[in-house]
Design a protein that fits this description.
mainly alpha, elongated
């Protein structure tokens, strides 16, 4: 809930005593939340550096889909700003 509705990255679901499908579901949700946390934190670190004038940083995290588009757009933006 913290990650999905409150925007608090790094949260994990802890459901003691579950097994089978419920454990698999919990593990998968935790894996997705962890991946998303890493991606967002990497993007935030780069955009913070750019905002401070440091154009030497690039987003390097391995991503797919719409996050890949965001990564590419930000990296191109950094390249273009560096050319001035």
């Amino acid at each position: 809930r913290e990650v999905g509705t409150e925007g608090k990255l790094g949260g994990q679901a802890y459901v003691p005593g579950v097994g089978g499908t419920w454990k698999d579901l919990t593990d998968n949700v935790n894996f997705m939340a962890s991946n998303l946390t890493g991606q967002v934190r990497n993007i935030a670190a780069v955009t913070t550096a750019v905002a401070r004038g440091d154009l030497s940083k690039k987003i390097t995290v391995d991503v797919k889909g719409e996050i890949q588009e965001l990564k590419n757009t930000i990296n191109v933006m950094v390249d273009q700003l560096s050319s001035f």
